[in-house]
Amino acid sequence: MAIAAASLASAAGGPVARKPNIVYILADDLGYGDVRCFNAQGKIATPHLDRLAAAGLRCTDTHSGSAVCTPTRYGILTGRYSWRSALKSGVLNGYSDRLIEPGRQTVPAFLHQQGYRTACVGKWHLGMEWPRGKGDRTENIKSGWEVDYGRPIVNGPLSVGFDAYFGISASLDMPPYVFIRGDRTVGIPTVEKTYVRKGPAAADFEAIDVLPALAREAASFIESNAEAARGGKPFFLYVPLAAPHAPILPTAEWRGKSGLNDYGDFVMQVDDAVGRIVASLESSGLADDTLVIFTSDNGCSPVAKYPELLAKGHDPSAGYRGTKADIFEGGHRVPFIVRWPGTVKPGTVSDQLVCLTDLFATCAEIVGTSLASSAAEDSISFLPILLGTGNGAARTSIVHHSINGSFAIREGSWKLIFCPDSGGWSPPRPGSDEAKGLPPVQLYDLSKDRAERRNLQAEHPEIVARLTRQIEQFIADGRSTPGAPQHNDGAPIVLIKRNQKTP
């Protein structure tokens, strides 16, 4: 990794004056096919994302670490598959304890050590410890009214390397409905509101205001740190948006704009929010010194009303099978755009395999610092893809994971799924009559069958055996990258479960 600076200098045509600012924008439940530049047949206008891609790189074979929210976020910030943590399926809620283990290295903590100012603006969903009225922070919270909202929160974003935080504790349909700044709520919940789920809320908190508020806060952070960044103090800004996740609430300005439904309108509003954040870089004179990454935490949710969208010619999964939560491609194949002026060639496209866990190793290579053997166990740098210098794919395999804990492994065009069903919400649902009697594993050749319709497991037992051995080795080693074996946390990992249910 010590050669990174030289590689960057060569690619840029001269020495790199300073470490780049890094802005990582993560949409919530945005499908691969919801961004026009990834889906020529898409019916949702996404001009800001399309321009971002035209000015940089579009990766077409990028995957979230999981088909749902929390585990993907864990993987982004730790460079480790979340199924190695205590969370083996499902997601956290708004009152869950911190998932990231004490002492585990994270992207923000690492970059902070490299001289970066670090901030998170958006949906956290990785747990934090809320103070109880009697000082007990560990007892399970039932209603949310047991919390003493006037006292500081501990083990939240500030405890894993972020210097600043503004956002909400979990998904926008999970209480408490209140903004958090740093380690304190903005106001005190005094009323009860329902955004899918019922719970404590600040009187002035409205879900429809969250996306605009996050875009403003992200832009404000950029503007207030611009002078320091120009003077050699770079920043890392992680922006996990809470949209277009449910509740699907486009503002009046965007309602009806897509001509599809509220989801289409909300996607357009997300695109506009990204445009506002990118514009703040340009107006602050930081665009040329900033690496911008845009992606999504998983595929589109069925809450978007797929039948309505499909009837009007829009497929959020762009022909791939399944939706959010599934082990199928629609659950975890996500749009991935990178803009880095002077380093990433405009208008380029890569079909090399990328996982969202790869941010950590990429940042390490960019700043020219090696990682500890106990960190980023499943992270592989995609810097060669950005520089256009890679001779073949750096990442040759990837492990997928669904909401109910089902596994799959991908190598080349082969994908082996260790369950007979979707592992999620699409048919055949786990435990359904439709799933009964199906083979226990599924093998697909994605180069010929992107819709994952022809199960080839019976025709290629040698491939099933080889890929099974590979994933078993990844599990046993506690890592999928070279290095000393590591320990997996939580309960033992079971590759093939019986009678799985979908959370």
Task: Describe the structure using short key phrases.
disordered N terminus; 12 helices; alpha/beta; four-stranded antiparallel β-sheet; 503 residues; eleven-stranded mixed β-sheet; globular
Topology:
Elements: H1 4-12, E1 21-27, H2 47-54, E2 57-63, H3 69-78, H4 107-113, E3 117-123, E4 164-168, E5 180-181, E6 184-185, E7 191-195, E8 197-201, H5 210-224, H6 226-230, E9 235-240, H7 262-283, E10 290-296, H8 306-311, H9 329-332, E11 333-339, E12 348-350, E13 354-355, H10 359-367, H11 383-387, E14 397-401, E15 407-411, E16 414-417, E17 442-445, H12 461-477
Parallel strand pairs: 1-9, 1-10, 2-12, 2-13, 3-4, 3-9
Antiparallel strand pairs: 2-11, 4-5, 5-6, 7-8, 10-11, 14-15, 15-16, 16-17
Helix pairs in contact: 5-7
Describe the protein's architecture and organization.
This protein has 503 residues and is α/β, with parallel strands linked by helices. The protein is 23% helix and 17% strand. The protein contains twelve helices and 17 strands. A hairpin with a 2-residue loop joins β15 and β16. α5 packs parallel to α7.
